[in-house]
Amino acid sequence: MKIRPDIVQVYREVHSWVGILCSLFLFVAFYAGSISMFEQPLQVWLTPAPSLPQPVELADTPQLLQKAFAEYPDASSHYTVVVNPDNARPARLMWPQDPTHRGHGPQDYVLAALSPDGELHTLVSRPSEIPFFIDQLHEQIGLPLPHTAARYTMGGVAVGYFLALVSGVIAFLPALKKMLFALRFGSATRKVWLDLHNLVGVFSLPFHFIIAATAVVFAFHEPIFALQGKLFQQGQPVAHGPAQQHGHAGDRSKGNGTRTVSFEGQMPPQAILVELQKQAPGFVADTLEYTTQSNRGKSRTTLRITGHDERYPTRGASNGFAVVDPASGKVLSADYLPGHQSAGFAALTAFVALHFGSYGGLPVRWGYYCLGLGGAFLFYTGCRLWIIARQKREQQAGNPQTRATWLLSCLTTGCITGCITGIAILLLCAPFWPLGGTYAQASLVYYTVFLLCMSLAFLLRENQRDPLLFCVAGCANIAIVPAVLIAMVEGRAILPSLGVGMVALVLGCFLLRSVKRSTCRLSA
Amino acid sequence: MTDLPLTNKQWLAKLVAGIVPGIMFSFGCMAIVGLLCGTAGEPRTASAQFLMWLAVLVWLGVMGSCFLFRSGLRAWVVLGGAAMLVWGLFEILAKVTTA
Fold first, then answer.
1. CA–CA separation, A176 vs A25, rounded Å?
2. In angstroms, what separates the C-alpha of A20 from chain B's closest C-alpha?
3. Are strands A78-82 and A93-96 parallel, antiparallel or unpaired?
4. What integer pLDDT is reported at residue A432 of this predicted model?
5. String of b and e for B23-48 (b: at least 16 CB within 10 Å)?
6. Are A159 and A215 in contact (CB under 8 A)?
7. Where residue A102 falls among pLDDT bands split at 50, 70, 90?
8. B1 occurs within a structural domain
9. Cβ within 8 Å, pair A10-B48
10. Is residue B4 part of a domain?
């Protein structure tokens, strides 16, 4: 392919500057994001089982509802029936303790169960917040900022990431044919990094373009929708009522006071699921969420059934939903029901699902985990290349290392090892924290470890910095293995946690091995 | 056309041109397409979501190519002109469709 050499040069410069500005943020986002592919299983693993009687059979749910709402009438305006209770959602019936709660993430839920003699037991609890914290690291590119500010910063970084991809492709295209499969191991360090960077970059390019574009959309969709509202809704009354029935949880009417919700005419949950199964075979329901809004004396109950179908992509990170008539079990809105969407919504869902990896089940999630780690590695090699190129130039000119080069080497090693070590220590501590850890505990531990690694990176001498800090990161990962085993012996962890231990072990060994190899190369 | 090689000397002006008039241009495109297909601007409809994607993708395209302008001034003139053009067109179309 022929591109004018001055254009290639322009894009090469853009690539190195945008890349260096964004790469460390992107490393954190990708590393945390690859772990948050498993947010739900991690939450089930880390949340201790509550001290409640066994959930009642699904068929007996109406009895549970009656007893619960006789005691807590307020709860009937918004509650969730869980189809398959697990540790993260441990009761058949649960409702938010604070119905005005805004924002996403785990919150306090009142869990209700019946003892064998039919007595109502309730418990206030929230699932482990460690997986949510890791997901927030991913969404906020590791910045402890308020949510909105962090989101716009993330959007800016995502645009930079997109620019880096475009410029990287253009800069690399002329050499594509002869360099693609070249892996010059054993030659100069710089060439090894360059070949790895190009190889990983080219082969995960579609994934990276999708992630970049969707990240920009996630960051800026709200102002764009606000603008659309201003442009296209002039003079039209804003639709209320039926059009908003599958709104966000935040749209719930607040502070309606006590009211009685009648269950007359409502189908019991199990019958609704049977009815839904007829209309959408293959859809596996997870929860039934009932919301009652009263408007001018009339109350209307909407039912949203979330679930998944492994054959189809889902709109959410792990599920889609149907809006269902609670009286007949008829599907009212299939806009986000996997496999039953209109062509338009299916296309929109596909864009988003390509970011979340929410299609194809577990194999795709593992694929995304590897692609995410590959992305993190790509940004690391990019930083390394930048540093090595500068060091070489400075050496050739006979100058000592400039402050900028030193600063970037410290930042790169500190940030990367800080992120890896911080997350490893979180997973190390989480099984031993009561309730599986809160967001505050997680922030404290993660940012302390992160800052420690960062300050070590600045304090250590050049030849000690990388070996020592990568050793720390590797050892922290390997230490997860005994922690998981101890937790299992104490009965705090379940069998799948061995998977976490295995992955951490492989990652830790890889880090230690890379230290050994690089010290060999330095001393050689 | 001069044959001076392209450089990054005026990168800041080109970048800001990609951001400010670039965003206005992409929103203008969204506005025209939205008007022509008669969207209601309700975020839960498929049309509104497609338009949002359109705006983002057009803007990303502009950002990816803004360094190709010969100078910062040219970038501002072309992108600013394009933005004014699409918004002017939108105003006219809005008048026509409501009349």
1. 28
2. 16
3. antiparallel
4. 87
5. bbbbbbbbbbbbbeeebbbbbbbbbb
6. no
7. low
8. no
9. no
10. no
Q: What is the DSSP letter of A431?
A: G
Inter-chain contact A228–B39, Cβ cutoff 8 Å?
A: yes
Q: Is the pLDDT of residue A494 over 90?
A: no
**Over residues A343-362, mean pLDDT:** 92
Complex ipTM > 0.85: yes
Q: Tell me if A6 and B27 make a contact (CB, 8 A cut-off).
A: no
Q: Please choose, from the candidates A139, A135, A103, A313, the residue with its C-alpha nearest in 3D space to the C-alpha of residue A211.
A: A139
Sheet with A78-82: list strands edge to edge: A120-125, A109-114, A93-96, A78-82, A284-295, A298-308, A320-324, A331-333
Q: Which of A431, A320, A470 is nearest to A87 (CA)?
A: A431
Binning pLDDT at 50, 70 and 90, where does residue A492 land?
A: low
Give the range of the structural domain holding residue B26, as residue numbers without chain letter: 11-98
What are the tens digits of pLDDT across the range A182-222? 777 666 777 888 888 988 999 999 999 999 999 999 999 99
On whether residue B36 sits in a domain, the answer given is yes
Domain boundaries, chain A: 1-47+129-229+361-386, 48-127, 401-524
C-alpha A48/C-alpha A277 separation (Å) is: 32
The burial of A264, by beta-carbon neighbours within 10 Å (0-12 exposed, 13-18 middle, 19 or more buried), is given as exposed
User: For residue A2, is pLDDT > 90?
Assistant: no
- Minimal Cβ distance to A232: which of B39, B44, B52: B39
pLDDT in tens, A385-405: 999 888 888 888 888 888 889
Q: Does A159 touch chain B (CB under 8 A)?
A: yes
B41–A232: do the CB atoms touch at under 8 Å? yes
Tally the domains of chain B: 1
Whether residue A493 has pLDDT greater than 80: no
Instruction: Give the residue carrying structure tokens 């057009």.
Output: B58
Residue A100's nearest CA partner among A294, A257, A295 is A257
Q: Is B99 exposed, middle or buried (0-12, 13-18, 19+ CB in 10 A)?
A: exposed
- What are the backbone angles phi and psi of residue B45, rounded to the nearest 5°? -85, 155
Residues composing chain A = 524
| Residue recorded with tokens 């400010």 | B20
Task: Work out the pLDDT band at A7, boundaries 50, 70, 90.
Answer: very high
A493 touches A484 (CB < 8 A): yes
A331 close to A324: Cβ distance less than 8 angstroms: yes
- Considering the domain boundaries, does residue B5 fall inside one? no
Task: Give the whole-angstrom CA distance, residue A352 versus residue A208.
Answer: 13
